[in-house]
Amino acid sequence: MLTLSSQITGQGAPLIILHGLFGSGRNWGSIARALGDLREVHALDLRNHGASPWSDAMDYALMAEDVAGYMAAHGWEQADILGHSMGGKTAMQLALTQPERVGRLVVVDIAPVSYVRESFPEYIDAMRRVDLSRISRRAEVDALLVPTIEDASLRAFLLQNLISEHGRFHWRLNLAGIAPNLPAIIAFPAHQDPFGGPTTFLAGERSDYIRPRDEEAMRRLFPRSKLIEIGQSGHWPHAEQPERFLHLVRAALG
């Protein structure tokens, strides 16, 4: 179990936010602040991301235990959890294995199923190929990523992990630790017992991460769940439609 770093804002009952792959708690700063009048929001950095410790081991059982350990360290028996993508799977894993720890669950644009995502290894390879010792400006890294990652918004998201300290750039990601664990990250463990708590799935209208065939697993494992589609958004509805997203999260949290 690793001790996770976090960004904390607001006051009230605890709400934990779990980011997706290649993200960090800092990505959720504006959402966390907007929810701060409702909850004490803890936006965590999952292992191998942000300011949290690095490890060669990374799967959903381990990440869920990290979150449970964070809760225990703060003296919480239970918290509401909002998780996006990989963070959503981590939240679901915790809810299914330690249901007493999870109150209300909000899962953003991911289902409790395994996926095929051939692009993730390519992203990691592209970032690792950059010789950061020769880089003086962020724009240089952006240009080097273009041949592999054409989407400018995706490059901008990844480049949020590029940090300059003492005149040198480095990634705030354990790329070497994440790469061999990608099969576990795009998969999801098998579960038999459902989570009985209230669950809201928020899906981006233009995203393919929640497909019609996934809804059976969602209903079986989360029988008190509802699925809401957010129009004019893809895999990052919280960034693309923040006002609609916040309205739905507030409703889900009661």
From TrEMBL:
It comes from mine drainage metagenome. Residues 14-130 form the AB hydrolase-1 domain. Its EC number is 3.1.-.-. One of its GO terms (molecular function) is hydrolase activity. The lineage of its organism: unclassified sequences, metagenomes, ecological metagenomes. Signal peptide: none annotated. This is Esterase YbfF. Keywords: Hydrolase. It is an enzyme of class 3 (hydrolase).
